[in-house]
């Protein structure tokens, strides 16, 4: 099934209609081929749901998690916001690395989602600038999750060496994103690990996704960011 309703459609309605999967318009060729392959293998959307777990919250009772999303592509920004729509998160947008650095210093977010390839200042240079500023101010490092289309070990090592705490390969999936956020907020950020050690422990977020809250997953059918 093809639908343009990406935020309010539920997997329960898909199952009730006797459908095995659906795609959100506009449909991308890679998404269509992947979904066909899964269906031919006997795997539908209902079989891709992880087990349950609570979403992470900000440090401080009852305070929404404040996320700085540095991403230049409007489609990717929209999809990440859709992934996090029903969770207790506030999202501030930065269209490039320069804006990300400026906004970081002003708003002091709990977490940064940093696209690596951006105009003006790329994500790695922005991360290094943020880490330098934190050091100069005597601040604890804020968790930074790199988002990039490359899953090559060398690119993973570069993002970790620049000061990122985790690395998620595009196309980003909602379970992997939420698992990475949960891991980042589960404990105080430690100094960046040696690239070789961090890369060895890092598959799609270069960490295996944890289980997620089932009620939240029913709201989205896991579109992809390319």
Show the helix and strand layout.
Layout: E1 2-3, H1 11-16, E2 23-24, H2 29-40, E3 65-70, H3 74-83, E4 89-94, H4 97-107, E5 111-115, H5 123-137, E6 144-148, H6 153-161, E7 166-169, H7 174-186, H8 195-200, H9 214-217
Parallel strand pairs: 1-2, 3-4, 3-5, 5-6, 6-7
Helix pairs in contact: 4-5
Description of the molecule:
With 226 residues, the protein is α/β, with parallel strands linked by helices. The chain has two domains: 2-48, no CATH class; 65-200, Rossmann fold (3-Layer(aba) Sandwich). It has nine helices and seven strands. Helix 4 (97-107) runs parallel beside helix 5 (123-137). The two termini are 21 Å apart. Residues 43-52, 197-204 and 207-223 have low confidence and may be disordered.
The CATH topology of the largest domain comes to Rossmann fold
How far apart are the first and last residues' alpha carbons, in Å? 21 Å
For the record, what CATH class of the largest domain applies? Alpha Beta
Question: Order of SSEs, N→C?
Answer: EHEHEHEHEHEHEHHH
Q: Give the mean pLDDT.
A: 75
Which percent bin holds the helix content? 25-40%
| Total number of beta strands | 7
Structural class: alpha/beta
User: Which strand-content bin applies to the residues?
Assistant: 5-15%
The radius of gyration computed from the alpha-carbon positions, rounded to a whole number of angstroms, is 18 Å
Count of separate DSSP helical elements: 9
The largest sheet is: 5 strands, parallel
CATH architecture of the largest domain: 3-Layer(aba) Sandwich
The CATH H-level homologous superfamily of the largest domain: Response regulator
When the domains are counted, the total is: 2
């Amino acid at each position: 099934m093809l639908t343009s309703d990406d935020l309010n459609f539920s997997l329960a309605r898909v199952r009730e209609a006797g459908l095995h999967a659906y795609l959100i318009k506009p449909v991308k060729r890679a998404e269509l081929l992947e979904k066909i392959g899964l269906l031919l293998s006997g795997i539908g959307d209902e079989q891709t749901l992880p087990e349950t777990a609570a979403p992470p919250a900000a440090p401080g009772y009852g305070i929404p998690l404040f996320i700085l999303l540095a991403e230049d592509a409007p489609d990717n920004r929209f999809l990440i916001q859709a992934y996090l729509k029903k969770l207790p998160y506030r999202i501030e947008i930065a269209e490039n690395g320069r804006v990300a650095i400026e906004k970081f210093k002003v708003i002091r977010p709990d977490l940064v989602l940093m696209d690596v390839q951006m105009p003006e200042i790329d994500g790695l240079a922005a991360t290094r600038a943020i880490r330098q500023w934190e050091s100069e101010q005597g601040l604890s490092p804020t968790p930074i999750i790199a988002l990039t289309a490359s899953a090559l070990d060398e690119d993973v090592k570069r993002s970790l060496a620049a000061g990122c705490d985790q690395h998620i390969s595009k196309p980003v999936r909602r379970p992997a994103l939420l698992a990475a956020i949960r891991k980042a907020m589960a404990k105080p950020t430690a100094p960046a690990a040696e690239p070789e050690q961090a890369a060895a422990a890092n598959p799609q977020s270069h960490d295996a996704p944890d289980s997620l809250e089932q009620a939240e997953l029913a709201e989205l059918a896991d579109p992809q960011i390319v």
